[in-house]
Write a structure and sequence with these properties.
The chain is of the alpha/beta class and 353 residues long. It contains 13 helices and 10 strands. It has 2 domains: 234 residues, Rossmann fold (3-Layer(aba) Sandwich), CATH 3.40.50; 100 residues, Rossmann fold (3-Layer(aba) Sandwich), CATH 3.40.50.1100.
Length: 353
């Protein structure tokens, strides 16, 4: 192994050593006092999202496999957050970075990538980002990180301070230290794979629920068993939902998939702002819908316990979209009934209907 790779590995490990773990934030559901809800706040990573963990793992994986060397141009197919985090690590190592992304990616995320020193390559067809990324890597003699293939294998799912490991350590002193459910979205599918493998390896009773937005294939694929399904365009929630079943999505370690309307996701983050006092990204809203479905089911069955989900990124990245009333109106979306539904659930426990 050459000196540059040794130095690169040391820089990434030093960056990890400087970072404290993210907080686990409790949020009471007043109408359901026996069900405890927690949000793992991934927005506090240096690059502002859950994808910081993935980007670190992908760089270590690429370096140790000999794919990333001094001067290597890094290319990634990304709707935004992964690209922001990979741009950060590329700049840490002094490497050029190009993000291939759909034209509809929020301007805030484009600016965040460019702030980290990356360059954005926008494409009209979201499904073309894979082929375009591979082509750029070939033309530039670079490395296509391919988060959608390597997310599930770059992370050590057995432990080693991964997100599942940290959640269970943080839950140790809670009334229900082993959560009944962990709820997350699927973009690459790597996060749900990590959670699902970890709880099985640790012999935990925790179940894994994936929430899937509109115009995404994970829900239909999970319940039909067809992993060749595709759809046109992208989902309405950046960072989750895909037009194809990604290689990193492992359905065998997922216990349930819930389909979520975009209006429900957007309404959820407006409601969360009122109870958390902060803006969260759209995928956090998708998570909250899944939490409410599961909590309502537990309540109906007379069960007490805990549910853990994620704050995937900050809502400050979506001021021009999910938090913009003109944007919502242009999409023909009325979030008011959904905000009211979440408020009603938290105060009365009524969810269905």
């Amino acid at each position: 192994m050459n000196a540059w790779v040794n130095a690169a590995l040391s820089k990434i490990e030093a960056d990890f050593n400087r970072s404290s773990d993210t907080h686990l934030i409790p949020l009471a559901i007043p109408a359901l006092p026996d069900i405890h809800l927690y949000f793992k706040d991934e927005s506090t990573h240096p690059t502002g999202s859950l994808k910081h963990r993935l980007a670190r793992s992908l760089f270590l994986y690429g370096l140790c496999n000999g794919w990333v060397r001094e001067g290597t141009t890094i290319i990634e197919a990304s709707s935004g957050s992964t690209a922001v985090s990979e741009a950060y690590f590329a700049r840490l190592l002094g490497l050029p970075f190009i993000a291939v992304m759909p034209c509809g990616t929020s301007p805030e995320k484009v600016r965040a990538i460019e702030f980290q020193g990356g360059r954005c390559h926008l494409v009209d067809d979201p499904k073309s980002i894979y082929a375009v990324s591979r082509q750029l890597a070939q033309e530039l003699n670079g490395h296509y990180m391919d988060q959608f293939t390597y997310a599930e294998r770059a992370t050590d799912w057995r432990g080693n301070n991964n997100i599942a490991d940290t959640i269970f350590h943080q839950m140790a002193l809670e009334p229900h230290p082993v959560p009944d459910w962990i709820v997350c979205g699927a973009g690459t599918g790597g996060t749900s794979a990590t959670f699902g493998r970890y709880v099985r390896y640790q012999k935990c009773s925790t179940q894994i629920c994936v929430v899937d937005p509109e115009n995404s294939v994970f829900y239909d694929s999970y319940y039909t068993g067809d992993d060749h399904l595709t759809c046109e365009g992208g989902s309405g929630v950046e960072g989750i939902g895909r037009p194809r079943v990604e290689p990193s999505f492992i359905p065998e370690v997922v216990d349930r998939v819930i389909q979520v309307r975009n209006a429900a996701s957007y309404g959820a983050i407006h409601f969360l702002e009122s109870v958390l006092g902060r803006k969260c990204g759209g995928s956090t809203g998708t998570n909250l819908f899944g939490v409410c479905e599961l909590a309502a089911g537990m309540h109906r069955n007379g069960r007490e316990g805990a549910i853990v989900t994620l704050i995937c990124d900050s809502g400050e990245r979506y001021l021009d979209s999910y938090f913009n009333q003109d944007w919502l109106a242009a999409q023909g979306i009325d979030i008011a009934p959904w905000v009211e539904r979440y408020q009603r659930f938290f105060t009365t426990g009524e969810w269905d209907g």
